[in-house]
Design goal:
The protein is of the alpha+beta class. β10 and β11 form a beta hairpin.
Amino acid sequence: MLHFEEDFFQEEERNGFVISGMMKRAWAAQLEVLEEIRRVCKELDISFFADWGTMLGAVRHQGYIPWDDDLDIGMLRNDYMTFLEHAPERLDSWYELKSVYNDPTDDIVKARIINGRHINFDKEFLEHFHYCPYVVGIDVFPVDHIPSDRKELDALVDSLKFLLKVEASIPEEGPYDEEVLSLMKNIEEKFGVAINYNNRLRHEVKKIFDIVSSRYMDEPTSEVSCMLALAADWDWYHCDKKWYDSYIEMPFENTTIPVPIGYDGILRCNYGEDYMTPRNAGSSHDYPFYKEQMIGLKEVMEAEFQTKLTDEQMEMLINAKLFG
């Protein structure tokens, strides 16, 4: 378990942005998840690395970007598939791995390690996760080899875009009409991937998306990318495979995190030439990430107390529950 000095959890302003004490606790809880991933990867002899904003935070801030509230890591595809297969049996009982391969409710083409499914005020849980009662997790992104031939790459990206359009057009739940079932049969034939028709078909399409993304994982290609980015028309997001040949440990809050040796090229590709200049572009989701959990808890408390609660009253009640 990581050690944090008590003043780490004090409200703080960084780069003109105020970080609350609870966000600091959420950061600390995420770093506990990171340590568990580190332990399992060491057992499996595979590598992971800071990715996306977490890589930028490690390089520019030696920790979290002040206005960021999550932690992202990446793995090259072969390591990623090894992790998906073997991590669940090795993870401590606090943790769970979710992916399109083991969770039929998960339609996101990345894995996620979480520390539960619901808010938890159990004493042992709170002590382990630095008095953050919320569900926290870390997203794990696969980084895929991409073909050097431009026509081959364009065909691959077109296939991924097609699958995303299909997924968006299918009803969230069955029963499905003949048109949808016929379309799915065509997809089975086109991509050579069996579909589980007892499952939600939107989920099955996302699983096929990931399988197609991994088609070049055993090829000695010179470039890698995030296939979700390419499918979203990030045509420029091609990274030299050599940038991931080794990793260096960089300071990250009160611990360290592996960063690819070619981080400068990756960050320039992702964030531009001036990536070292901080700009508060906000988060890719509602900040803080635990807002929805907090709202759900508020509704439960309002029903219990038969009264409406202000945000300030809610915070006082949570603090009383945590530290009273």
